[in-house]
Write a sequence for this structure.
């Protein structure tokens, strides 16, 4: 049997994974573990997802085969999940810190590295939203679009764009892939590391122009920047902020609250999903349960090949390789996927990994 441990493929670059030093992860994880034990007892969920991790290692991707035909939403389950998640976080509030919570010069401790601090600069402060960018917003159907290469040749673009609210990850390019991924983006995440990886660290003017152009395409969508997770990206965040201000971009910046990741993790732990750190994709699903009656997931696929054995790229838009099971990785994407698959089968969300049917 071929090992599926390596080179898993799915959306979501980890939050700032690139900046970690392994030893620090170990320490912060330990720290989180103790912090979270109290929370796990709060909620008695009935989901009881069986997250026996071993089967992920034994089986191949076909373990997670699911069918989209005849999928039906279970509205009462959706409401139940929303209510359960609300005990841990209110996405309206936790989706972003707000300006009134800080003043320039305030020092905050990084969420996953409490010993390190960040100073709130004038630019950062001026870009904090006055009120939550998601306040009072409700949608009938939402798409959460992961970045897996499983989207290539899917022809899902039109279907994705037909949703009322489209969430994307890590400033993924869309125009060149519109037929498969669509172009609509109402909410898009951006790890600070993207500046280095996709925009040459803003070394020269053309990199900066490319970035400004990409952001201007977003119009007044929400740009969600996890700036307070770990030390390492603050320089990039500052550059991004000053480009937004200098070019008067309309994009609505948001910076996740300091408690968000712990709360999301706490919710999943109570459902017996033992993720060390939720991926951006899982964060987005968890947040969107607050705003969306029907959640459709695309581009989630943590395997190096599809059901037929064809290779699947980690990202649909680049050649990045990713070792999901290396010890340095804080994520458990196959476990997350297994969980989402269970939720699909129960009608809590719809997971599309195949081709989209043309209407
Ligand atoms: C979870 O799945 C494993 C592997 O399929 C199985 O052995 C175990 O009994 C299951 N546990 C529960 C609680 O269903
Ligand atoms: C929908 O979910 C509820 C709550 O989890 C459950 O009791 C019910 O049996 C489900 N209905 C269907 C049709 O699966
Ligand atoms: C943050 O602010 C403190 C106190 O104002 C200052 O001592 C420190 O050098 C600042 N750090 C950075 C990285 O700007
Ligand atoms: C800017 O940098 C990119 C790579 O980051 C390179 O492809 C491009 O040629 C450079 N442009 C100029 C004008 O130096
Ligand atoms: C932003 O506005 C332009 C021009 O109206 C439009 O072509 C584009 O699709 C919009 N972008 C998004 C992400 O909605």
């Amino acid at each position: 049997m071929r090992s599926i441990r390596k080179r898993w493929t799915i959306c979501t670059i980890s939050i700032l994974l690139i900046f970690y030093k392994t030893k620090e992860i170990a320490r912060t994880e330990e720290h989180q573990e103790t912090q979270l034990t109290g929370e796990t007892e709060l909620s008695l969920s009935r989901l009881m997802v069986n997250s026996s991790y071993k089967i992920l290692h034994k089986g191949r991707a076909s373990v997670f085969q699911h069918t989209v035909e005849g999928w039906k939403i279970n509205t009462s389950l959706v409401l139940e999940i929303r209510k359960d998640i609300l005990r841990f976080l209110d996405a309206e509030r936790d989706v972003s810190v707000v300006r009134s919570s800080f003043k320039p010069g305030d020092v905050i401790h990084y969420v996953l590295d409490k010993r390190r601090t960040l100073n709130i600069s004038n630019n950062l402060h001026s870009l904090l939203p006055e009120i939550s960018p998601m306040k009072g917003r409700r949608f009938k159907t939402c798409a959460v679009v992961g970045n897996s290469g499983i989207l290539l040749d899917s022809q899902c673009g039109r279907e994705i764009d037909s949703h009322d609210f489209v969430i994307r990850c890590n400033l993924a390019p869309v125009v060149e892939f519109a037929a498969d991924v669509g172009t609509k983006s109402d909410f898009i995440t951006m790890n600070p590391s993207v500046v280095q990886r996709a925009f040459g660290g803003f070394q020269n003017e053309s990199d900066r122009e490319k970035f400004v152009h990409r952001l201007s395409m977003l119009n007044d969508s929400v740009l969600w920047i996890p700036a307070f997770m770990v030390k390492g990206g603050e320089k990039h965040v500052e550059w991004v902020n000053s480009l937004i201000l200098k070019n008067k971009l309309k994009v609505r910046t948001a910076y996740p609250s300091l408690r968000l990741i712990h709360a999301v993790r706490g919710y999943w732990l109570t459902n017996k999903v033992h993720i060390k750190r939720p991926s951006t994709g899982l964060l987005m699903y968890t947040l969107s349960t607050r705003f969306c009656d029907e959640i459709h997931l695309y581009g989630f696929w943590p395997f190096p090949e599809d059901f037929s054995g064809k290779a699947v790229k980690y990202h649909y838009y680049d050649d990045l390789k990713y070792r999901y099971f290396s010890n340095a990785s804080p994520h458990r994407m196959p476990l997350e996927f297994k969980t989402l698959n269970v939720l699909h089968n129960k009608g809590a969300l719809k997971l599309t990994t195949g081709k989209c049917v043309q209407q």
Notes: The longest strand covers residues 113-119.
